[in-house]
Amino acid sequence: ASAYASLMPIADDLIAGVGDDSYFLRRCDDGSLVWSYRSEFSGDFGVPSPVVGRHGAIFTGENNGVLWFKDLPQVRADQATAVDERLIPDSHTPVVVANQLLVAHDGLHSLSLRDGLSESWSVAGTQVSGYASIIASADRALVTTEGGKLLLVDLADHPGKLLDQQTLTESRHALLSHPAILGDRLLVRFENEVRCYHLPAGR
């Protein structure tokens, strides 16, 4: 398996993972291979973790795009539910909110899990490039960008609307950490320090 990607449980007795140019399901008890998909194009970093849940499993890579397998492990590896080859994140894991998949690549994009990964909206095309991290609730998405920006995006009342943006740092060093929320505080690790930001109520 890739040294980067996490193993994610997909059922009581199955885990999903990312290997060298492949995605797989293995049994938890003995590690035996249950299902595998050989990537069409080789060379993915294998950083994004599989996204698993009631929608099945979603795999992403910078050479193979977004692949959705809804009925694992029954579905054959060559029968993906849907594929989006336009969005090719190499180091962030997309986030599922209700029936939408949020993917950061040249902007924040919402792909429909009701309509075969069709794009519902996109925003912040110039602010989001390279690495980004997403923290989402049912009605908001908070995105930190490689360039040190913090973006707040509406997911409910006006889906895809950029509600606010702030500059966290103007350092020449890329922001490559994933922030954490503790109560009403946002914790972000920069190159040689950790900063704490207050999150206003209702934002």
Which key terms come to mind for this protein?
four-stranded antiparallel beta sheet, 203 residues, mainly beta, 46% strand
What does this structure look like?
- This protein is mainly beta.
- A hairpin with a 2-residue loop joins strand 2 and strand 3 (22-27).
- The strands form five sheets. A four-stranded antiparallel β-sheet has the order 1-2-3-4, with no helix packed on it. A four-stranded antiparallel β-sheet has the order 5-6-7-8, with no helix packed on it.
- It has strands at residues 8-11, 14-19, 22-27, 33-38, 51-53, 56-61, 65-69, 82-84, 95-97, 100-104, 108-112, 119-123, 132-136, 140-145, 149-154, 162-167, 180-182, 185-189, 194-198.
- The chain is built from no helices and 19 strands.
Map the helices and strands.
Layout: E1 8-11, E2 14-19, E3 22-27, E4 33-38, E5 51-53, E6 56-61, E7 65-69, E8 82-84, E9 95-97, E10 100-104, E11 108-112, E12 119-123, E13 132-136, E14 140-145, E15 149-154, E16 162-167, E17 180-182, E18 185-189, E19 194-198
Antiparallel strand pairs: 1-2, 2-3, 3-4, 5-6, 6-7, 7-8, 9-10, 10-11, 11-12, 13-14, 14-15, 15-16, 17-18, 18-19
